[in-house]
Write a structure and sequence with these properties.
Shape: globular
Largest sheet: 4 strands, antiparallel
Number of helices: 1
Order of helices and strands: EEHEE
Distance between the termini: 39 Å
Low-confidence stretches: 51-55
Strand content: 25-35%
Number of strands: 4
Oligomer: single chain
Mean pLDDT: 83
Strand order of the largest sheet: 2-1-3-4
Radius of gyration: 14 Å
Structural class: alpha+beta
């Protein structure tokens, strides 16, 4: 799967997911395209290195 990214100079490129992670970490891009539209760095919620947003109660935990 390739992901479209936009650089600060306005150019676009298709990159692999591991490259996207590197570009986000380096803050080398301004935004990237998701299925629901463009995600703007600094505005959109992004996954952490652990790969999850959820910080609430774990519903799968046994009682």
């Amino acid at each position: 799967m390739m992901i479209r990214v936009e650089y600060p100079d306005g150019t676009h490129q298709l990159v692999r997911p591991y490259v996207l992670s590197q570009l986000i970490a380096k803050q080398a891009i301004t935004r990237f395209e998701r299925s629901g539209g463009w995600a703007v760095l600094g505005e959109a919620r992004l996954r952490s290195a652990g790969g999850s947003f959820h910080s609430g109660k774990n519903r799968r935990a046994s009682a």
